[in-house]
């Protein structure tokens, strides 16, 4: 194993968002339920990430608000920043934006590893900040993002592993004047509801599909825009028809053979005119389908299909497997627009 590296991480955020609880869960493996306002504490922890041992010094800072003076010491010898808000507090979400601005004012234009963390994700009934809002804020900062619960040790570990990876990425780009960074790989053999929970970076720039066909989503929990990936190599995100490198989850496409058959309906709940297809169709109107929309469908055969909003297999795509879909919401579409359809090709 290579020599241990020392890294100093600062944890910042509004009062009572769980900064200390998250840190103690990571360091000691226990959840501290009572709230005791922190002045400033420092914790140490040894952790191994990707075969490299790190000696972490964790600065658990006092809670701040929009009027707090940002201490100059928070810019000295810090290798990464974890900015924490509570998903149950709009105030903490607004204050974290102010803290981020003060941090940038202090460090200037130097590129620094920053990670945004939405804590208390276990408090479902009290949530007021959505996952999408947190992710969008992190993306606007070009920062990593995770949601966590200080009650769950694994999410706490994921947070600190992630900031280490972010710090190493920037260190790699800065060393010796090179622009290269560490290459992080993740191998998936089944459904993965969150790449981030596996400690993977929130950016995916290349994919190799070694077997089967897969559908990837730009959000965790199999939500958001879909992308179909069949056997082969995808050296950049343009190859899977994406406009960004963000992916959050993936799962294998359910296929049982090579007998393809699909029936599409003009109306919801399988009403109105219908059309049956067994081959790819690059333009539905060319097959006599005089509408640009499909409101229901049935997949009868063994295979799966991809629906495209535009002709010639372009635009947003949606994967449908064997079963009945009584409305376009059933295949997670934003509208009923479908103008081309093709079969999913599977290589076992």
Question: What attributes does this structure have?
Answer:
single chain, 348 residues, alpha+beta, Rossmann fold, Gamma-B Crystallin, domain 1, 3 domains, six-stranded mixed β-sheet, four-stranded antiparallel β-sheet, 18% helix, elongated, structural constituent of eye lens, GTP-binding protein Rheb, GTP-binding, repeat, magnesium
Structural description of this entry:
- This protein has three domains: 5-177, P-loop containing nucleotide triphosphate hydrolases (Rossmann fold, 3-Layer(aba) Sandwich); 196-252, Gamma-B Crystallin, domain 1 (Sandwich); 262-343, Sandwich (Gamma-B Crystallin, domain 1).
- 18% of the residues lie in helices and 30% in strands.
- It has helices at residues 19-28, 90-107, 131-141, 153-174, and strands at 5-13, 40-49, 52-61, 80-86, 114-119, 144-147, 207-209, 214-219, 223-229, 232-234, 249-252, 262-267, 271-277, 296-299, 305-310, 314-320, 323-325, 340-343.
Can you tell me the CATH class of the largest domain? Alpha Beta
Task: Determine the number of helices (DSSP H or I, runs of at least 4 residues).
Answer: 4
Strand order of the largest sheet: 2-3-1-4-5-6
The CATH topology of the largest domain is what? Rossmann fold
N- and C-termini, Cα separation: 37 Å
- Return the structural class: alpha+beta
Rounded mean pLDDT is 87
Q: What is the ordering of alpha helices and beta strands?
A: EHEEEHEHEHEEEEEEEEEEEE
Share of β-strand residues = 25-35%
Topology summary:
Layout: E1 5-13, H1 19-28, E2 40-49, E3 52-61, E4 80-86, H2 90-107, E5 114-119, H3 131-141, E6 144-147, H4 153-174, E7 207-209, E8 214-219, E9 223-229, E10 232-234, E11 249-252, E12 262-267, E13 271-277, E14 296-299, E15 305-310, E16 314-320, E17 323-325, E18 340-343
Helix pairs in contact: 1-4
């Amino acid at each position: 194993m290579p020599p241990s590296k020392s890294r100093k991480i600062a944890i910042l955020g509004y009062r009572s968002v769980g900064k200390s609880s998250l840190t103690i869960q990571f360091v000691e493996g226990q959840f501290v339920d009572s709230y005791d306002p922190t002045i400033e504490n420092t914790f140490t922890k040894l952790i191994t990430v990707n075969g490299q041992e790190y000696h972490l010094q964790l600065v658990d800072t006092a809670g701040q608000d929009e009027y707090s003076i940002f201490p100059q010491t928070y810019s000295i010898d810090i290798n990464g920043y974890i900015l924490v808000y509570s998903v149950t507090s709009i105030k903490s979400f607004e204050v974290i934006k102010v803290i981020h601005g003060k941090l940038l004012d202090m460090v200037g234009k130097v590129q620094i590893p920053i990670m945004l963390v939405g804590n208390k994700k276990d408090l479902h009934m009290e949530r007021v900040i959505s996952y999408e809002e947190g992710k969008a804020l992190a993306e606007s900062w070009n920062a990593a993002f995770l949601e966590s619960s200080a009650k769950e040790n694994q999410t706490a570990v994921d947070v600190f592993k992630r900031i280490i990876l972010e710090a190493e990425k920037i260190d790699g780009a800065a060393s010796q004047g090179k622009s290269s960074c560490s290459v992080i790989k993740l191998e998936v053999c089944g459904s993965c509801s969150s790449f981030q929970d596996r400690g993977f970076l929130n950016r995916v720039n290349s994919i190799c599909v070694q077997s089967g066909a897969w559908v990837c989503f730009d959000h965790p929990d199999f939500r958001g825009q879909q992308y179909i990936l069949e056997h082969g190599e995808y050296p950049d995100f343009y190859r899977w028809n994406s406009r960004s490198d963000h992916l959050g989850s993936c799962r294998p496409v359910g296929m049982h053979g090579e007998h393809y058959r699909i029936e599409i309906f003009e109306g919801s709940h399988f009403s109105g005119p219908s059309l049956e297809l067994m081959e790819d169709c690059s333009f539905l109107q060319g097959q006599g389908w005089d509408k640009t929309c499909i409101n229901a469908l049935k997949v009868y055969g063994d295979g799966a299909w991809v629906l495209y909003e535009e002709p010639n297999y372009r635009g947003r795509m949606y994967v449908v497997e064997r079963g009945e879909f009584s409305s376009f919401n059933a295949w997670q579409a934003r509208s009923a627009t479908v103008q081309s359809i093709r079969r999913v090709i599977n290589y076992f």
